[in-house]
Amino acid sequence: MKLKGITDVFFDLDHTLWDFDKNSALAFKKIFKLRELPIDLSTFLAHYIVINAQYWKRYRDEKIDHETLRIGRLNDTFKAIGFSIDEALVYQISIDYIVHLTTYNHLFKNTILILDYLSIKYRLHIISNGASDIQHKKLRNANISHYFKTVTNAEMASVKKPNPKIFEFALKAANANVAQSIMIGDGFEADIEGAMNVGMDVIYFDPKNQKKNVEIKQIDNLIHLKKYL
């Protein structure tokens, strides 16, 4: 059923439009090859994805800073797979990762199609917890930056999703009315609950069909946004 009165559509970036897991895997594959590290990529990623998610939650909750996030997730993953590695090399890999990550820019299926479709009818925006320079590189290198009127990140707002202040900051930057805005993201706590707490409508992007809440509008493919918008 089509939603009425919506003028502004806010998207999360990582895991919603930009395929973080695929791009991250390619970055680590390149790094391990360049540094000639005998690490099984699939084993590493099986642990890293879980550990990274845990670190990002702590980062969102203001329990750790960005430097601890970048180094800690690597240290814990190497320990989990039993790979002995020098501390200085871990630090260098954390830098390598940031450098190489934005050279891969796979998007979720139908991202361009849906952005083309929505941009005709709505003003589009980004709200992200990622670092400003990295997120802008992702948008630019993936050739989607031109779709978005505003890009709000945690550095600009001085808080992270799900803190209501970042949504209020984004709404003000976009000159958007909360009653005429909608948030689309994969993070149930950060994107969905965060936006709902300031009165925004929401659509939960759930490509793995986890179905956390059947009462909330959900899609497993971005093209299904056409059902609502």
Automatic annotation (TrEMBL):
It holds the Pfam family Hydrolase. Transmembrane segments: none annotated. InterPro entries: HAD-like_sf, HAD-SF_hydro_IA, HAD-SF_hydro_IA_YjjG/PynA, HAD_sf, PGP-like_dom2, Pyrimidine_5'-ntase_YjjG. SUPFAM superfamilies: HAD-like. This is YjjG family noncanonical pyrimidine nucleotidase. It comes from Snuella lapsa.
